[in-house]
């Protein structure tokens, strides 16, 4: 949940106007690819990141499937997640959520998160079940709205999905009261029997400005040519409100190992949601890290020092789960 309406000078890539992508990724020790995937619910834009040190696709520590937040996509600053994990020795796959980036759908509209999650899950499982990746540890990761989508994907996964663990960064499990869509407005628009669902008429409450604390990084985020910077659409906000309530009632079904990280200064997605998941989930391997005073965008909105602290915690957690579980997995709820 991290779009920004801040106007910024156009730039070719999130790292600037040069070098070109192949050179940039190679300089980081990575192999990068882009493609489209036809899901049962629409066509998705997808990306993959592999360490150049991996001679073959499955020659990695594990595989991580990532989902970005509201209004953004997988091709801009969210890549810091993907690049980091790939540099740590993991294969990473991302998909733009329906209604976002280069995937199908009305820009900024997610009126049915069940369909959006089903689309991304279909892509992730197509990779997970491939011969190169089926034997190795696999993790789902989601940031902000993508955290909510990630938990929904876990809950909707087939028993043989084989998820080793879940990773949540500032997940949208509880909407802060000041960010909650007007219940009166949602009711009144609801009287139009769905005709208003795609209308971009709800207040945005300066989501971008509240999500990113570093002013220079806010400018970079604002230069994303595929960001959604319009007002929130009626159906999207109604669906996110519904989804958070559904997920809160499903925390007791989370059996997989998981890590949730959240800044205590986050006013876009409440850290209370991560606390609730930690308290209610019956998982025997669960971790919660709260960062005092940090904002919503822990990786792309904080100082480099804070970012590196969070990344170190993320790396330590996943490396330990690979060491601890190897190819064994904890899958979906019974």
From TrEMBL:
SUPFAM superfamilies: alpha/beta-Hydrolases. Pfam families: Hydrolase_4 (PF12146). InterPro entries: AB_hydrolase_1 (IPR000073), AB_hydrolase_fold (IPR029058), Hydrolase_4 (IPR022742), MAG_DAG_Lipase (IPR051044). Residues 59-301 form the Serine aminopeptidase S33 domain. This is Serine aminopeptidase S33 domain-containing protein.
